[in-house]
Specification:
This protein is of the alpha/beta class. The protein has helices at 14-25, 47-57, 72-78, 83-92, 127-136, 157-164; strands at residues 3-6, 30-32, 39-43, 66-68, 97-102, 118-122, 140-144, 170-173, 183-186, 193-196. It has a single domain, classed as DHBP synthase (Alpha-Beta Complex), CATH 3.90.870. It contains six helices and ten strands; from the N terminus they run βαββαβααββαβαβββ.
């Protein structure tokens, strides 16, 4: 049975955040609100949970999963960031962006792109997501909650529970999210490359 927590979007209940962290530590997959769409998230170091997450999304190991980080210093632990990249990240985080960057050795090999050794990272501007990241003390591995065959991401917690009952371990209801996914920018080369136009403004990158 999938658990269902109603969490206040502005003042997340610490008791529920701690319980959600326990679900993740136990290998669970959680549907989590963000500053764009809902996301499916799991523990960074749980190989079985990562495989389950990929199966739910219908994606292979060439599809970038995203590390949801608390702040810029955490991004720098998992990605190689030069001064130019840092300025762009500082100007746009937290916010509805996903950045493709060169992965450091801190990133398990199975999580980076197999040929390019890159990783997707983001710092969500959402109090529930941030509270859970603080409680865990490390990034979450996540992906937009768009199921195979769907054209749009799921943005309503009750719908998510109905669609994924018994397939995931917890739905955190933090209210309706945006219909738009994150803007994805590849910063791994000399010049930024727009991969997907989403909710985040592209002007800071000169697009």
């Amino acid at each position: 049975m999938t658990q269902f927590f109603q969490v206040h979007p502005d003042n997340p209940q610490l008791r529920l955040i701690k319980q959600a962290a326990q679900v993740i530590h136990a290998g669970g997959i959680v549907a989590l609100p963000t500053d764009s769409c809902y996301a499916l998230v799991c523990h960074l170091d749980d190989k079985e949970a990562v495989m389950r997450l990929r199966r739910l999304r219908g994606v292979d190991d060439k599809h970038h999963l995203t590390l949801l980080c608390r702040d810029l210093s955490e991004i720098a632990q998992y990605a190689k960031v030069d001064n130019r990249q840092y300025r762009l990240l500082k100007a746009t985080t937290p916010g509805p962006y996903t950045f493709i960057l060169e992965a450091t050795k801190e990133v398990p090999r199975r999580l980076s792109h197999p040929s390019r050794k890159t990783i997707g990272l983001r710092v969500p501007e959402n109090r529930i997501a941030h509270a859970l990241l603080e409680e865990l003390g490390q990034p979450l591995l996540g992906t937009t909650l768009m199921l195979p065959g769907d054209d749009v991401a799921l943005t309503d917690a009750e719908t998510i529970r109905a669609r994924l009952e018994r397939q995931i371990d917890l739905v955190i209801d933090g209210g309706a999210c945006s219909l738009e996914a994150t803007t994805v920018v590849d910063l791994s080369d000399d010049e930024p490359v727009l991969i997907r136009q989403g909710r985040g403004d592209t002007a800071p990158f000169g697009f």
